[in-house]
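Lab notebook page, bench 4
Experiment: in silico fold of construct C2
Operator: M.H.
Input chain length: 245 residues
Purpose: comparison with the prior construct
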Amino acid sequence: MENGESDSPPAAEKKGTEEDEDDFGYRLFPDRNKKPQSFLVRSLFTFHNKCQLMLRLTLETNPYARLLLDALKQSGCTVFNDRHFSCENCDGCVSGGFDSATSQIVLCQNNIRQQSHMNRVVTHELIHAFDHCRAHVDWFKNVKHLACSEIRAANLSGDCTLMNEIARFKFGLKGHHQTCVRDRAIRSILAVRKVSKETAEKAVDEVFDACFNDLEPFGRIPHNKADAKRAYRDFQNRDRYNANL
């Protein structure tokens, strides 16, 4: 599993040693191994209903998500709500994840309570899905591949916007965005891989410049919704331009 947002500190996320068998983060998503519940049973749980409603609103209105959905479709990986998203209960330290084995995005219905949070998690995981679609990503064996996608997700999803960082009581001036992206990428790796902090830091640092500057499919770092809307318009115009070549 490729991690979404992680709320606990890296020290708490690191369980076991590198010699332990790695479960690739599936321990954080216990519902992945359970038999699916019937629609009637799931409809009785408020968390599930709320998650589905927030997801639908994100996919229909959020410019980050809409751009990524169009980019995935253009890349030959059309996303379907019922097939590629699953609202489930998760460990308390994560908000979502991308299950590359099933090409499915997991949304942690017990941890996502606000629409803005849903927007950010869906965007983060759609970036992983986009990377999975366009590149031969070795999620399970190559930590550098995982690090690159985590850098891109933190950079382009809005995880490190000024308002989000202020809400976390983190402040900085020059280079703060890059610092946030690096820190969150490392945290995400530690949440889903049984590696040392030094290994995660080394992987992130080795690919940081190339992956931080890979802005596809946005073409810019969308620091807010206005930036995301402009990026979406540019993406649509790019499609029209390419169609006329």
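Observations: The chain has two domains: 24-136, 137-224. The two ends are 39 Å apart (CA to CA).
Next step: discuss at group meeting.
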